[in-house]
Amino acid sequence: MSKLRVEVPEALQPLIKPARYKGAYGGRGGAKSHFFAEQIVLKSFANPTRVVCIREVQNSLRESVRQLIADKIEKFGLGEFFQVLDAEIRGKNGSLIVFKGMQAYSAESIKSLEGFDVAWVEEAQSLSHVSLRLLRPTIRKPGSELWFSWNPRHKRDAVDELLRGPKPPEDSCVVPVGWKDNPWFPDVLKAEMNQDYARDPEMADHVWGGNYEIVTEGAYYAKLLFEAEKSGRITSVPYDPGEPVYTAWDLGLDDSTAVWFAQICGSEVRIIDFLETRNKALIEIAKQVKELPYVYAEHYMPHDVETREISTAKSRKEHCEGVGLRPIIAGSKIPVVDGINAARTLIPKCVFDAIKCERGIEALQAYRTEKNEEKDVFGAKPLHDWSSHAADAFRELAVNLFDVKKAKSQRTASLVEYDVMTYHDDYRSGTTAGVDDYNPW
Ligand SMILES: Nc1ncnc2c1ncn2[C@@H]1O[C@H](COP(=O)(O)OP(=O)(O)OP(=O)(O)O)[C@@H](O)[C@H]1O
Ligand SMILES: [Mg+2]
Fold first, then answer.
1. Best exposed site among 18, 142, 276, 342 by fewest CB in 10 Å?
2. Tens digit of pLDDT for each residue in 132-161?
3. CA distances to 111, 133, 249, 277, 315 from 255, in Å
4. Which residues on adjacent β-strands are paired with residue 23?
5. What is the pLDDT of residues 260-273, one digit of tens each?
6. Whose CA is closest to 319, among 296, 291, 294, 286?
7. What domains appear along the chain, each with residue ranges and CATH number?
């Protein structure tokens, strides 16, 4: 028996041994595609193997990995063994490699793939949740494998949830791989990468560093949170029993409720916790919040919390206070844009608990304006989506903490009355900020 010797980057070597799920993810140029293409040729040469190379959308074979696999066949000198046809590649041992787009399949027609040994999903970040749900039980032959290569985009993308989430499937082998792991990283890509880092480091971090994309276009707080992360302000933030906790709520009409928990420690605002629930009665959530081991100062709720319900003749505020959650402060009706500005002022003062606030931070990152796709312009109003509840509650927090902090600062200011009087003339002539526009942060 003769042997084929193939160089494989060390970062990708764990993927050589069998596993039901194999994944390689990371920034551009990490040798992912070349690696899987070589593995397919080698596997199909060693044993009769049926392989489907999949993309979410494949409008023509030119968009597929067909040419890359054909090149690998040439590289290994196996041109005699494989027959490269237009739509498929056949091996003399009965191996078959086909190239498909998931959009071509229905729940019925995908069953034609049941006899396949390997499904390789290239550019798997584009694979929809529906496609992944269809594909997984279809590849069902004993010993069959699902391979994924991708450039991560968002934590909530189907492949990231499956293979990088808290509970990846049993028998999965997933490796991060980047350009640094690629011994053949070409100069042309290196030059591209250097230019990208010089021009837009955040974007380069995503494209080349393989980090999730920070969408700043139209997003209100994404940049501020990126800065918070970079400066280590998304970290572990324990509860300080010496300071009271302020909560801020959004009571969604579709039964979603979001609550932020904050403490003011000097000039720092510690965001220690976040809660989001669906389909749970407000009174139950109020009880749940009350029972948390925090000592509370105030609870900020939207302005309509005082409206009486027809069925019980009681307001939501009274319901919550009835279970001991008090005092509840009904927010004032201020324009959304002012709330957003208050949040923008607050975020640079905040440290967030990375674990407890994970979902809330994600929502703040995603919170954005509506976009008119036809005209390619952003509107003035926030988009209403899954991120709105956390974002609305955060606005409530920002507006109210602004007042709390201002009150605290003014108390402090009375101690230095002498200094204030010294600058009285400047204040009058407008060169020193007046109390009303004094930003307490
Ligand atoms: N096994 C290999 N042999 C020779 N060159 C390789 C090999 N693997 C990678 N390269 C070189 O590195 C480059 C990047 O590799 P590849 O396209 O596989 O990366 P990738 O991780 O799929 O990148 P992207 O995320 O951009 O799709 C290739 O264009 C090629 O020049
Ligand atoms: Mg690739």
1. 142
2. 999 999 999 999 999 999 999 988 889 999
3. 39, 28, 13, 8, 16
4. 148, 174
5. 999 999 889 999 99
6. 286
7. 10-181 (3.40.50.300), 234-410 (3.30.420.280)
